[in-house]
Design brief:
Largest sheet: 6 strands, mixed
Number of domains: 2
Mean pLDDT: 90
Strand content: 15-25%
Radius of gyration: 18 Å
CATH class of the largest domain: Alpha Beta
CATH architecture of the largest domain: 3-Layer(aba) Sandwich
CATH topology of the largest domain: Trna Endonuclease, Chain: A, domain 1
Helix content: 25-40%
Low-confidence stretches: none
Structural class: alpha/beta
Amino acid sequence: MVARKLDRDVRVHLHEYLHREVVKHPDTVIIDELTLQRKDGRVDVAVIDTHLRGYEIKSEADRLDRLTRQTRIYGKVLDYLSIVVADRHLHHAIGIVPRFWGVYLWTPNTGVGVIREPILNASVQKTPLAQLLWRENALSLLKEHGVQQGLSTKPKWWLWAHAAEVCSQDAIHAAVRHQLKTHRRLENRN
């Protein structure tokens, strides 16, 4: 009996593909296991450049029962989304993910190959996007937008909601990208 390939097997090939085909600027960051929406979801691999890109891996050993929920969570935050699947999941996954998602096929012999390129996600929402900000970065963003009074005592959920109220989506997006590219808390950066 042949052992099923696991997430880590696919991840190695995905990183190789991303470095070869996606990473075009030296300040681009790849993050494994990026937590989204107050820990409601965690995308397997994120690429942070001028956009927020997410890649969900479904290896031979995985099941697809969480994929519908993952598409909803990820679709509120990430600009480009893709699924990287083993052959056994390809047709079922294509039926689950929205049409703007990219679809990549992984095989042990050839690595990661494109089935369908992702399209820019038009459904990103300001509040879930702001929830990627750490408290100190949400405070900084609000101060940059002229909100000064009483911020230091506010809980982070208030800061996120207020940022979504007073800041443009572009400003929140830029703050999130800057945080993800520059903070040392992200130990699994490549």
